[in-house]
Amino acid sequence: MANTPQVGILMGSESDLPVMQEAGNILAEFGIPYELIISSAHRTPVETHDYAVNAAKNGRKVLIAGAGHAAHLAGVLAANTTLPVIGVPIDSSALKGLDALLATVQMPGGIPVATMAIGKSGARNAGLFAASIIATANPELQEKLNQYRASLAEKVRAANARLQAK
Amino acid sequence: MANTPQVGILMGSESDLPVMQEAGNILAEFGIPYELIISSAHRTPVETHDYAVNAAKNGRKVLIAGAGHAAHLAGVLAANTTLPVIGVPIDSSALKGLDALLATVQMPGGIPVATMAIGKSGARNAGLFAASIIATANPELQEKLNQYRASLAEKVRAANARLQAK
Amino acid sequence: MANTPQVGILMGSESDLPVMQEAGNILAEFGIPYELIISSAHRTPVETHDYAVNAAKNGRKVLIAGAGHAAHLAGVLAANTTLPVIGVPIDSSALKGLDALLATVQMPGGIPVATMAIGKSGARNAGLFAASIIATANPELQEKLNQYRASLAEKVRAANARLQAK
Amino acid sequence: MANTPQVGILMGSESDLPVMQEAGNILAEFGIPYELIISSAHRTPVETHDYAVNAAKNGRKVLIAGAGHAAHLAGVLAANTTLPVIGVPIDSSALKGLDALLATVQMPGGIPVATMAIGKSGARNAGLFAASIIATANPELQEKLNQYRASLAEKVRAANARLQAK
Amino acid sequence: MANTPQVGILMGSESDLPVMQEAGNILAEFGIPYELIISSAHRTPVETHDYAVNAAKNGRKVLIAGAGHAAHLAGVLAANTTLPVIGVPIDSSALKGLDALLATVQMPGGIPVATMAIGKSGARNAGLFAASIIATANPELQEKLNQYRASLAEKVRAANARLQAK
Amino acid sequence: MANTPQVGILMGSESDLPVMQEAGNILAEFGIPYELIISSAHRTPVETHDYAVNAAKNGRKVLIAGAGHAAHLAGVLAANTTLPVIGVPIDSSALKGLDALLATVQMPGGIPVATMAIGKSGARNAGLFAASIIATANPELQEKLNQYRASLAEKVRAANARLQAK
Amino acid sequence: MANTPQVGILMGSESDLPVMQEAGNILAEFGIPYELIISSAHRTPVETHDYAVNAAKNGRKVLIAGAGHAAHLAGVLAANTTLPVIGVPIDSSALKGLDALLATVQMPGGIPVATMAIGKSGARNAGLFAASIIATANPELQEKLNQYRASLAEKVRAANARLQAK
Amino acid sequence: MANTPQVGILMGSESDLPVMQEAGNILAEFGIPYELIISSAHRTPVETHDYAVNAAKNGRKVLIAGAGHAAHLAGVLAANTTLPVIGVPIDSSALKGLDALLATVQMPGGIPVATMAIGKSGARNAGLFAASIIATANPELQEKLNQYRASLAEKVRAANARLQAK
After folding, report:
1. Which site among D156, D157, D164 would you substitute to test the B interface, given the most B Cβ atoms closer than 10 Å to its Cβ?
2. Among candidate residues G107, F93, E6, E55, the one with its CA nearest the CA of residue H41
3. A96 contacts in E (CB within 8 Å)?
4. In what order do the strands lie in the sheet with E7-11?
5. Can you state the percent helix, strand and coil of chain H, rounding each to 5?
6. Nearest residue on chain G to F142, alpha-carbon basis
7. C53, F49 in Cβ contact below 8 A?
8. Under 8 Å CB-to-CB from G60, ≥6 apart: which residues?
9. How many other β-carbons are positioned within 10 Å of the β-carbon of residue D11?
């Protein structure tokens, strides 16, 4: 189906939505269908497990998971699928996301989670990274990524031009 | 059954056994039947899930989980049972167990994991804490805990006596 | 007595009450009688010692202690009782609770403190964990814990439903 | 060409080879052609830049970069290609890889680096993650990944069987 | 030319300008011509590379680079020039600049970056340090630095006098 | 009595003796009578409490406490005496003494512990600091401290002379 | 002279005054004459050196130094006097006082600095600790310290009474 | 004089010599006269002060200071000269040089210290950075730096050639 989500973006709590929506916004810019799902590694473990187990046959190509505190969501997804799983640590505890970062990135051998920076910039990069994965088999998307990258450079150049004009 | 394990001690890897055996040794001192299980949150998620889901009806009263790196095992067990779950962070990564500590202790609201110190002293304390849980409904075991505590004090006093005699 | 507190919730300072009340609220939900006590490891050491020494014979089954800075309260209680002691690190210093976390969790061998996450979610989990300890000998309470857990899952599902309906 | 490397594994120093070879070994297990390249972000910036700029047209699909200290290699590659770049922090400084981890993972918005755990297990996971990316358009490889995952589970089960047989 | 900038102050993002302007203000106090440039290590790598490669022949004597997150800008400049490069870590991520500090200071052997404190005081010190470099061959500027230092002492003495007069 | 110990050096475990003996050695150099005591905040809380409560009337003028892990010993002494208490964090856990440092130094308002560096140099400094406290009312001891300080300077000068003679 | 300050409280910057005044307030409660001095280890090194060198002969018995960032003030004082020096780390940088704490407490062997907690509670404790040093030779002051301690306990008891009365 | 040292390399202890000699070796490669001096900020503060105060008129152009623990040496030098001061944190404490890094780099506004990486690679970079400062007024030395940089690149290329030839 044309509209089958290619990327599943999961988060454990409604409060993580403002961060994880950033990943979705990037995917939308690239025309990649995605879905946002609230599913908790700890509070709805069965749904989370089932989502991961069925993700590939349901047409997902990449999963993105955002979580704070002892962030287990990305790891739990990765344990139940061999699709690429991208983790976004969220700064929602007293430790400012250091806990979520270490709980996401320090995965033991065999079960990789591709970890991004803490917070919104990490969520945007998760969207971009998912696009770059899909683009490995999609030259048109690859070209869009190149154009997006060029537009980032253009924004830096414009900012510099504003500064020089002061 | 008299010998049904009351405590399940789980670890994700054979290499964690020298640490987690310490928990078992303490339980053995108190005559509490236990079992040691290798089951990985990430590599055998289904077995781990099933163990947790069935632990209560199989007669377990307390679970202990030891893990290093992004230590998810205790959290995954806690997500699938309401038995008390005790977590032991293990120092098996470059970050000396700080990653395992934060990934174990910083659980989000709703799914507690009772976290002990990093490494062998944490594993011993996990055994003791499991005993103290069981003892809340077992006066005889409570009395053994009191005697054990007295024996710890006696060892400190003996060490001090040796020092004063120098 | 029916109303003898089964759980003692201690804190060293009145300013910790908004955090530690969360533990009490959870216990109230489960119908477990508890008491909130302000008693400082450092400023009222005798009262703190006496509370711990007498806790078991006064009918307490579990103690919960919340403290910030160099958080010694849980450890001091644990040194004077063999009841299960649960520690809640509180974020009340410049170091954002990392000091309280390490001072609570890194207990030496022999004297366990079951440590929860920093702050309010840790306090709620302390209440839940205390309930799970008491439930090991109380099937009715165990059943309530299972229902509570199911309600947490239901809330996640409801949040997801709201999101999908957008 | 059948043997065109699909994955480029770069490192800044010969001393990083024992770690980064682990990524290559995994790719070899999956029959994915790769190359190992020593190229420094700081000491051979032009070669590093040129490698990244030409990687896509030279047939690379994924890049892996390992570095210690202030690890810039993955970020410099990512700045010059829109191929997926995977970063492996290496523990080669006094700070045990925490510096390399933060310098790799905390990329600003727009230029993602998919970060793995510090050291050899991270390098192995980088190889696996690269395979999972390529597998998104290669069902046969996807199947191999599933088999590999099954073999990891089997090893855990075998270890548990050995333990139970003691 | 009299007005050729002797110091180039680079930053990766317009949002870093309020911090890096502090370095410029100090240079202005000493009458040292400087320029402020927005150029990103990751989003405009070619411009950044070209700036560094041509800095010496364009008359720059010292470069200052400010960046947050995984701060690569100073390192990328240092990789492409042998002029002295001064790095200013900026506190713009959840980790409060610790990431930027480590990513700036922990440079591998061969490519030094002179790192200052995180944030505005670091930016001011970067300006002063650039002045002290230029002053090594400019006795008049050296004298101005001595006077500036004397004025700092005078301010401390005046503050103390105010305090004693209370 | 001439030989009444003026300084009590306490430690929780025999294994801390090689570190804490350093404090005693310094005191011996200054002719200050001291005693070394093994007494644990957690395993012999009553003896530890009694020692602190009676320290002043038994002639102690300063207490020194060394502990690792969640180091509570100095704090527990300080809670039970208003004599000056000096804390020495010991590096005996996976976290390299950072836990002991924070658990010793981050005391809440009202109950100070004078904290030294982690390990043997901290223990030596604890001895010196105890001497400097006693010297505030003992001009002869003050003079000895000045001579000791001069001897430290002499050692540095001698080391420099050796270096210059190479 | 009756009013010769016995305690010198130094700080490097006027902005540290609200923290360090807390130390003075405590000393005032005990009737101990003190002075507050702004003198910077880095900006007025000669005055700072001279203050320390002459402190003993000017009648000071204890020095207290508060500083943020790379806090050198206490160490510089301690290098130039054998009077007891107490250090108070101040949270005035991006790193929340962790830098000041480590720069104050980790003194090398031979030159102790008695370090207190970060911030205002540390400053209050510095005042109390200075009082406890002076009290070692002043039984009347020792008695006041005991009363102060008793008043702290009374406040905790009163807070608990308020809580129980709710 | 032709042989007047242009760079003074200071360290507080003989045990730091193996690290700091690396800085000297680099300067020797470039034919820059230097001296190695043992002088402690804390144990020989007068000599250290005098060295800094007289460094400029004695012909020094740059100072390098290496220190561990609460590393104050570079800051103390910088407080007493306006010559450029480069700091090298040394890993000689339990905290692995993190203490020395923060105590060196987090200098307050007005007194910059140019901080290098922890340990030997930092010392080498200190030598290189001193050379780059002197080279700002010495085109011949600038050319040598460019050649040195080229030789570093050549070594990387040679290492890569060896790897490709395997």
Report:
1. D156
2. G107
3. 94-96
4. E34-38, E7-11, E62-67, E85-89, E114-115, H114-115, H85-89, H62-67, H7-11, H34-38
5. 50, 15, 35
6. G82
7. no
8. G5, G6, G7, G8, G83
9. 29
Establish if D34 belongs to a structural domain.
yes
F91/chain H closest Cα distance in angstroms: 7
Q: Domain residues for H56? A: 7-135
Regarding whether B45 and B58 lie in a shared domain, the answer is yes
What is the rounded radius of gyration, in angstroms, for the C-alpha atoms of chain H? 17
DSSP at G161: H
Single out the residue of C112, C107, C149 nearest to residue C128, CA to CA. C149
* Adjacent-strand bridge partners of G9: G36, G64
- Tokens for G146? 């005991």
Residue A14 and residue A36 in one domain: yes
Helix or strand run (H / E) with residue F115: strand F114-115
Query: Is pLDDT at A1 greater than 60 in this prediction?
Result: no
Among C80, C87, C93, C125, residue whose Cα is nearest residue C107: C87
Same domain (yes/no): C46, C91:
yes
- Chosen from B16, B42, B98, B107 to mutate, greatest number of chain A CBs within 10 A: B42
| Residues on chain G touching C72 (C-beta within 8 angstroms) | none
State pLDDT tens for residues D125-160: 999 999 999 999 999 999 999 999 999 999 999 999
Mean per-residue pLDDT, E97-118: 98
> CA-CA distance, F78 to C76, in Å (whole number)?
13
Task: Say yes or no: B131 and B143 in one domain.
Answer: no
CB pairs under 8 A between E and H: 111
Domain-located, residue H125: yes
Q: Domain check: are B91 and B11 in the same one?
A: yes
Cβ of C38 within 8 Å of Cβ of G159? The answer is yes
Q: Is the pLDDT of residue G45 over 60?
A: yes
Alpha-carbon distances, residue D110 vs A22, A116, F61 (angstroms): 12, 11, 62
Q: Give pLDDT, residue F19.
A: 98
What backbone phi and psi angles, to 5 degrees, belong to G67? -155, 155
Cα–Cα distance for residue pair B126/B119, rounded to 1 Å: 11
Asked whether residue G164 is domain-assigned, the answer is yes
Number of domains chain H contains: 2
For residue C66, the domain's CATH number is 3.40.50.1970
Structure token digits, residue G47: 């005055």
**ipTM entry:** 0.97
Q: Is C17 near chain B, with CB under 8 Å? A: no
| For residue C10, pLDDT beyond 80 | yes
- Residue H51 near residue H10 (C-beta atoms within 8 A): yes
* Residue C66 within any structural domain of the chain: yes
Q: D99 and D144, same structural domain?
A: no
Q: Strand, helix or coil at D11? A: strand
> Which residue of chain A comes nearest to D108, CA vs CA?
A121
**Ordered DSSP codes for C118-148:** SSHHHHHHHHHHHHHHHHTT-HHHHHHHHHH
Mutation for testing the A interface, residue in C124, C125, C160 having most A CBs under 10 Å: C160
Q: Encode burial over H21-40: b for 16+ CB neighbours within 10 A, e otherwise.
A: bbbbebbeebebebbbbbbb
Do both C89 and C130 map to the same domain?
A: yes
Tell me which DSSP letter residue D16 carries.
Answer: G
Distance CA A39, CA A105 (A): 20
Q: What is the pLDDT of residues H107-163, one digit of tens each?
A: 999 999 999 999 999 999 999 999 999 999 999 999 999 999 999 999 999 999 999
Number of other residues whose CB lies within 10 A of the CB of residue B139: 10
- G17 and G70 inside one domain: yes
**Tokens describing residue B33:** 């039947």
- Cβ atoms G36, G17 nearer than 8 A: yes
User: Would you call D108 and E49 a contact, using CB atoms and an 8 Å cutoff?
Assistant: no
Residue A100, CA distances (Å) to A135, B103, E91 in order:
28, 7, 19
